[in-house]
Amino acid sequence: MAANEEPQLPPVRAQSLLSDDERELLTTLASEYDLTFDELDRLIEHERSMQGMGRRPRIHVWIQRHIAEIAERRLQAK
Amino acid sequence: MIIRRLQMRNWGPYAGDHEVTFEKPRGKRVIQLIRGENGHGKTHLLRAMVIAVQGRDGMRIVEPESRAGGTSTKAHLDAFLHDALTIGAEDEAEPQMRLAIELEDGDDTIRLERSWWFDGRAVGDEELVVVLNGSPYDPAASDARDRYEEKQALVRARIPENVMQFFFFDGEEIKTIAENDPTDEVTVGLDALLGLTLLEELRTDVENARSRLAKEEVAGKRAAAEIQLLESEISELEASQVELTDKISEQKVAAVEIETEIEELQQRLPTGARTLEGKDEHRTDIATRIQAREADRENVRRRIGDIVANDLAILYPKALLAKTVKRLQGEQACRDWERQRELMVPERAKLSDRMYGKGAPQPDPPLTKSQLAFYRDRLIEEWKNILQPPPKGIPKDQWLTGFSGEELEAAQLRLQTATGDGAGDLDAAIREDAAIGDQLRALTDRLENYATDQDTRVVVEKIKQASDRLGQEKRAIQELEAQLQELGGVLGEKRREHGTKVAQSTDSEETRERLAVAHNIIDVVAQFRDQLKRRRVEDLQSDIQEMMAALAHKGADQFHSVVIDPNTFQLSIFDVEGQQVRRLSAGEREILALSMLWALGKISRRALPIVIDTPLGRLDRRHRTNIVESFLPHAAEQVIVLATDEEITLERRRLLKSWISGDMELVFDSDSRTTQVRQAEAVAK
Lengths: 78, 685
Hints:
The complex is a heterodimer of chains A (78) and B (685). With 78 residues, chain A is mainly alpha-helical. Helices cover 63% and strands 0% of the residues of chain A. Chain B contains 21 helices and 14 strands. In chain B, the strands form 3 sheets. In chain B, strands 2-1-4-5-6-7 form a 6-stranded antiparallel sheet, covered by helices on one side. Mean pLDDT of chain B is 77; it is low at 313-319, 328-338 and 359-366. At the A-B interface, helix 1, helix 2 and helix 3 of A face helix 5, helix 9 and helix 17 of B.
């Protein structure tokens, strides 16, 4: 698999492991750092779905891409 | 998530093929009872479910010592699996051992099937088939190992291994936890179950990404510095390129000048000369020929003089000449002559002298061809006019004023003679004189332009020197052009490098932004992890306390509240009076452990079934009743209880009646040492 190829995840049903209060906490913290809940939740969900796969390079690629997307949005917003 | 079916082949006492179907929970009927005596296969059933879900890694759940001590080596696993194989099943049809479990997870159905062989191949090479909603899951990977790992990942995404251990456990497990310091379990549970491990791993992964970005940023800064250096180098190279180009142009101009010089020198060489020597001899020949032609011209002119003197001059009277000239001045035909009058006047005087004064012909200054022609034509014409009768109306005496009759007669007589031969001779002589003049001029020009041998040698030497210089110039140009080409290559390379660095440098702004985002994510995740930990520890505390209160033997058990240090996870128990309880009874420890497991399972927010083997263990009657009443019906969406009849007595079954969805018994054949799973009703019949 090429390093920049989109990781093919197994068909995992996305479900947040956070309660409403915890989601609110994450949202508040995220906004203080110019981030959104969704941006962080995607990271958490992805990390969770990749657990145990023994494919760390995949998650590294994915995280870098995710960071790049957020950065691009921020640059466009400036 | 609930378990719907379990299939076993040659799994411990379950010889051959067995299928256990679990009733679907209906309303509050969540408890599936499976009763059996000790040693009849309850623990094998629990282990079958765990191994069917997790495969070989599930051994860490069913073998607590491997979890604590890390003894899950391949040999250990092989031994474990081999021990699980029904005695004497090695020779059975393939595969010798198989476990399959069917799960319902929301709208999804998942079937996991694991098979093992004991015919010499590696026991650890278990085969895994995952069927999701009726379709076999076909991972993208081609390598068998990778395919297995991807299937495992699918399973773990649904039922993480470190979570499962808090849902599938036996009484021995509870006892072990209760007898040991529970702090370790809390620590593991909090890290894994509370999502802290997940957040920590995420933080580490983002940290890795940040490190890469930091390196990129450094590379970008380095690129910016290198760009300056490169631009300086390129500028110098471009200046050198211009300098070289100018130099080449100058050299080419110099070469062209030398070529022109050579051409001019070559033109100075005698035309058609086949050799460079002998020019002096040619010059002598030309000079001799000039002398000869000059002699010829002198003779011709002497002859002209003779003709004029003898045949014409004497016939031209002085008065008539004056008159003629005067008249000629008015003639239209003599305009050209008039223009040359200034020349004609002295010539006329000389002619007059020759005719009438000295009478001798003068070769020098020579008459021009036109002069001689003019004189001749005019003289002849005038004499013809003289000899003609006067025009009508003009008296004869007025026609030729100043001539005596004798003169006219004598002139007429001489003219008749002269015009016969003299005029023709004069004409021929004049033409001959002109031709000789032309030849002389040509010869003189030729002689003037004809190089001497010495001149030729000098020119040839100059040509040689110029050619040498031209060669040098051309070689220099070639060298310069080679240098220019080489320089062009270097320049191109530098420009490409510059382009690359500029691209790197241009990316740096984006890299800085990404770096900032990565920093923010790390900070947020770290803060969130800390706050989440604190909140969930509080929840855990509250849940443990709640379950402990429900399960405690009121009045006998001393614990009242639990406090967990969010930093150290140290668990402290306090009695009603707020005093810390240092020692717990065996029953209290088991209740505490069960409460912890329940609370951890609850806080993990995983809707997994709970499977408990021998849940009541060593508990006393009151504690057992509390667990049956307060724990089992509310533990999960599906609770599978593997118990002896001593634990779940008929009385307790009645107590649980409205929560039980199914009741099965393990029927053990002591002769064959095999077990069958049957519905309790069937047994009752």
